Amino acid sequence: PIVVFASRVHAHEIGKTLWLDQYRNGKKIGELNRDDYYDFEVQRFRKGSWEVLSGDELELHCHYDNDTLNTVVGGPASTDEMCLNFMLYYPRSPYEFCGGPIEFQQAGLH
User: Fold this and answer.
1) CA atoms within 13 A on the CB side of 54
2) φ and ψ at residue 63, rounded to 5 degrees
3) What is residue 110's predicted lDDT score, i.e. its pLDDT?
4) How far apart (Å, rounded) are the C-alpha atoms in residues 48 and 4?
5) What pLDDT does 65 receive?
6) How far is the C-alpha of 110 from the C-alpha of 106, rounded, in Å?
7) Which residues of the chain have pLDDT under 70?
8) What is the maximum alpha-carbon separation in the chain?
9) Which of 6, 47, 67, 102 has its CA 20 to 30 A from that of 38?
10) Pairing relation of β-strands 15-24 and 57-64?
11) Per residue in 46-77, pLDDT tens?
12) Rounded distance, CA 65 to CA 55, Å?
């Protein structure tokens, strides 16, 4: 298991509500983070203590409000959009990031 002691949700300008659910054995057991009034200009870590076991699933949700006529695509620029969660945890992992099977294969981690 790992213990998450801080979590920060992240989106860009049109992100409005962001949250991270934790599931164990297919059942939701809680939220590691939630920001119902997300503000790109005010981003901070939420402190806590959440145990994540092998097999747990973390599901990130991001709701957006595009009140312009502009098309917004996903990408790294602030004018693009994204949906991320950063976590600080222990013990240390040999991996730089946590992802699903496709991300691990792309990074050469099998």
Assistant:
1) 2
2) -105, 140
3) 41
4) 7
5) 94
6) 9
7) 95-110
8) 46
9) 102
10) antiparallel
11) 999 999 999 999 999 999 999 888 899 988 88
12) 33
